[in-house]
C-alpha cells in the first residue's frame, strides 16, 4: 500500500489572540510550511513574549524561553532547549540576553556535557566539560578576575593540553600532548596571538615542519567531492512514500570523525520521519575511513553537521 504523507496536515494549531506562528527550515531560516523542520509560536504574556519552538516531525518541544521584545531578539528569563528525543539539551537563566547563574548542557544520551557559572554574560569561577562517554574533557579554573587555567583531556582520560587564559584569550606557554602522553607542541601566546611554536612527533622527535600541524578531517576517498559522491550513491527515497507540496526533504545528522578517522557519535539532530532519518543515519554511520583532523601536531576529533537531502522524483 502506498503511503501519502501530507506535510501540510502535520500542524493543526490555529492562531488565537496574540499568538504568532512561524516556520523554519533545517538552518533556522524562515520558510514556507512545506519546507519547514521547525514550528514556532510566540505569545504575549504579562512577563514578556513566550516563545516555543518545536521539531515539526513529532511536535516535540525544541526550545522554550521568555523574551523581552516581540522580535524575540533578547531573552530575559529561563531558557530550555531539548534534543529530538525529548531529553534536555541546555538549561539556564538569561537576563537581558546575557547568561546569568548556572548554565548546563547535556548530550542526547543524558550525560552532562558542560557546566558553568556566568555573571553578566561572562564565565565566572570554574567550568567543567565532559566527553560523550563521561570522561572529563575540559576544566577551566578561576585564578583571579582576569586569569584562568584551562586543562583538557582526551576521551580516554589522557592529558590533551594545558595553559592560561587571560580575559578568555590564550596567554603564556601552552603545552599540547599526543594521545600516548608525549608532548606534541609548545606554543607561547600573547593575549591570543601566537608568539612562538615548537612541535614534536609522538616519538619525541622535534618536528620542524609546522605547515601540516593543523588541518580539518578529510574524507579519504576523494575529499569533499568524494564524500558527496558516497552519499549520493547510497541515498534513496524510501519506497512507498509520496509527499505533496514539496519534492525535497532534508534531514540533518551530526557526527564526529575520531583520531583514527572513524565516524562516531552519529545522531539525527533535525529529524523528518523515521524512515528518512534511519536512511540518513545509516549512510553516515557506514562511512568509509577519513583522514583525521590535526591540531597542534596531534590527531584530534572533528565535529560535523551534515544536511542529507532526499529528492523525490517528479
Report what the structure shows:
By secondary structure, the protein is mainly beta. The chain has three domains: 8-130, no CATH class; 138-208; 218-311, Fusion Protein Consisting Of Minor Coat Protein, Glycine Rich Linker, Tola, And A His Tag, Chain: A, Domain 2 (2-Layer Sandwich). It is 8% helix and 52% strand. The strands form five sheets. A 16-stranded antiparallel sheet has the order 2-3-4-5-6-7-8-9-10-11-12-13-14-15-16-17, with no helix packed on it. The longest helix has 12 residues, at 223-234. The two termini are 20 Å apart.
In short:
This protein has helices at 223-234, 274-285; strands spanning 3-5, 20-24, 38-44, 49-55, 60-67, 75-82, 88-95, 98-106, 112-119, 122-130, 136-142, 147-153, 159-166, 169-177, 183-190, 193-200, 206-207, 218-219, 241-243, 248-257, 263-270, 290-291, 293-295, 298-300, 302-311. The chain has 314 residues and is mainly beta.
Strand order of the largest sheet: 2-3-4-5-6-7-8-9-10-11-12-13-14-15-16-17
Extract low-pLDDT stretches: 1-17
The shape, in one word, is flat
Number of domains: 3
| Percentage of β-strand residues | over 45%
Structural class call reads: mainly beta
Q: Please tell me how large the radius of gyration is.
A: 23 Å
Spell out the helices and strands N to C.
EEEEEEEEEEEEEEEEEEHEEEHEEEE
Mean pLDDT: 92
Number of strands: 25
Number of helices: 2
Main sheet attributes: strand count, strand direction, barrel closure:
16 strands, antiparallel
What's the end-to-end separation, in Å?
20 Å
Question: What percent of the residues sit in helical stretches (DSSP H or I)?
Answer: under 10%
Amino acid at each position: 500500500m502506498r503511503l501519502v504523507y501530507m506535510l501540510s496536515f502535520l500542524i493543526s494549531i490555529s492562531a488565537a489572540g496574540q499568538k504568532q506562528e512561524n516556520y523554519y527550515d533545517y538552518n533556522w531560516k524562515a520558510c514556507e510550511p512545506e519546507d519547514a523542520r521547525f514550528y514556532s509560536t510566540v505569545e504575549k504574556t504579562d512577563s514578556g513574549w513566550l516563545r516555543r519552538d518545536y521539531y515539526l516531525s513529532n511536535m516535540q518541544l525544541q526550545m522554550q524561553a521568555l523574551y523581552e521584545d516581540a522580535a524575540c531578539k533578547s531573552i530575559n528569563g529561563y531558557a530550555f532547549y531539548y534534543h529530538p528525543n525529548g531529553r534536555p539539551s541546555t538549561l539556564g537563566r538569561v537576563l537581558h540576553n546575557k547568561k546569568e547563574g548556572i548554565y548546563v548542557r547535556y548530550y542526547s544520551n543524558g550525560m552532562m556535557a558542560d557546566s558553568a557559572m556566568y555573571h553578566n554574560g561572562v564565565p565566572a569561577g570554574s567550568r567543567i566539560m565532559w566527553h560523550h562517554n563521561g570522561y572529563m574533557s575540559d576544566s577551566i579554573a578561576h585564578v583571579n578576575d582576569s586569569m584562568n587555567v584551562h586543562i583538557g583531556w582526551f576521551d580516554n582520560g589522557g592529558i590533551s593540553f594545558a595553559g592560561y587564559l587571560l580575559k578568555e584569550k590564550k596567554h603564556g606557554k601552552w603545552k599540547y600532548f599526543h594521545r600516548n602522553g608525549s608532548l606534541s607542541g609548545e606554543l607561547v601566546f600573547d593575549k591570543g596571538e601566537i608568539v612562538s611554536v615548537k612541535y614534536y612527533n609522538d616519538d619525541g622527535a622535534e618536528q620542524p615542519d609546522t605547515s601540516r600541524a593543523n588541518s580539518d578531517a578529510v574524507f579519504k576517498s576523494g575529499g569533499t567531492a568524494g564524500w558527496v559522491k558516497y552519499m549520493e550513491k547510497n541515498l534513496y527515497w524510501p519506497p512507498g512514500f509520496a509527499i505533496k507540496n514539496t519534492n525535497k526533504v532534508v534531514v540533518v545528522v551530526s557526527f564526529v570523525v575520531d583520531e583514527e578517522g572513524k565516524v562516531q557519535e552519529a545522531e539525527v539532530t533535525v529529524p523528518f520521519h523515521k524512515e528518512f532519518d534511519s536512511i540518513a543515519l545509516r549512510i553516515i554511520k557506514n562511512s568509509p575511513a577519513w583522514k583525521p583532523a590535526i591540531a597542534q601536531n596531534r590527531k584530534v576529533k572533528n565535529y560535523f553537521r551534515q544536511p542529507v537531502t532526499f529528492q523525490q522524483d517528479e
